[in-house]
Design brief:
Length: about 325
């Protein structure tokens, strides 16, 4: 039996598959295109904003584009090299500015192609940086938002993290990429350890471990509590007699015992030492390999023996 560490856990977002959508300039929310819980595709429009700074940048871009087109039409035989370079630099700077403020290349190209000064109204759309589910959208229409304000959070829940916090002595037994089992109700999901935090929690003095779990059916959601079993290092493995947990009972004096078959249908209590528990299995010492033990119904056998003698057939 390998060293198995059990601990409570909590499903959390996979930060490597999560993005936040924020404005880069002061803006006002004009329209929302998605809602909380919606699945979005990469590049999908999420929200329309309006910004005075963006309007100024859009106007400057149209002016720079017009000037660059003019000097290109005149040609290098008519336009000086300095004017040609100046027009190119002004265009690139104006394009870079509207891009830095939040317009995508596709939106910029559409604005230039239309060439309509009335389109330089400061409106632009923020697009989804990845596919996933919208799990946060704390804004309302008409709200003024500052640069860096989190308008939406998107996460890919197909591979989610489970965070378990372990005492330092147990966390030392765990290595990256080892197997783990996450239990949700009656369902067990296979996973593996992807992160071990090096800094302890200031309050609990525990070490966080992140387990990545495939979650195609969205059985796990951030904030959900689960139980985890993590496989320890190979050198921590032990050998012994492994029996179902239900096979081991406490005797009257508090010692651990199992019921062994001495003859067909005849049983007696045998004291054992409990070495380790791993889920629904336990490792014991005190009986020889090949011994037949009661795996189910041990409590019933114990009760009958306590009544003063027990012989049972066909059970």
């Amino acid at each position: 039996m390998p060293q198995l560490i059990t601990a409570p856990g909590e499903a959390v977002v996979n930060r490597y598959r999560t993005s936040v959508v924020t404005p880069r300039v002061d803006a006002q929310v004009v329209k929302r295109h998605v809602q909380l819980g919606d699945h979005v595709d990469a590049g999908q429009a999420l929200v329309t904003l309006s910004s005075v700074a963006m309007a100024t940048a859009q106007g400057a871009l149209l002016e720079a584009d017009t000037e660059l087109r003019r000097v290109k039409q005149l040609g290098r035989d008519v336009v000086s090299e300095k004017r040609f370079v100046t027009a190119q630099v002004a265009y690139q700077q104006a394009r870079a500015q509207v891009g830095a403020y939040g317009m995508s290349d596709r939106q910029i190209d559409a604005l230039i192609r239309q060439g309509d000064a009335a389109r330089a109204d400061g409106r632009f759309q923020l697009l989804a940086p990845q596919a996933g589910t919208v799990i946060n959208d704390p804004f309302v229409i008409g709200q003024i938002v500052a640069p860096g304000y989190e308008l939406l959070r998107i996460t890919d829940e197909s591979r989610i993290w489970v965070e378990a916090r372990l005492p330092v002595n147990e966390a030392e037994w765990i290595m990256k990429d080892v197997a783990a089992i996450v239990t949700v109700g009656d369902t067990q999901l296979n996973g593996k350890v992807v992160q071990l935090h090096h800094q302890l929690d200031d309050t609990t003095r525990t070490r966080a471990v992140h387990i990545e779990v495939a979650n195609p059916d969205h059985r796990l959601h951030p904030g959900q509590f689960v139980n985890v079993v993590i496989e320890g290092k190979a050198q921590q493995a032990q050998q012994g007699i492994v029996v179902p947990k239900a096979a081991v009972m406490r005797s009257k004096d508090g010692d651990w015992q199992v019921f062994v078959e001495t003859a067909p249908g005849r049983f007696e209590a045998k004291e054992v030492a409990l070495l380790r528990t791993a889920g629904e299995r336990v490792m014991i010492d005190g009986i020889a390999p090949g011994t037949t033990v009661v795996a189910r119904g041990a409590f019933f056998v114990q009760s009958e023996i306590a009544k003063g003698g027990f012989e049972i057939h066909n059970h």
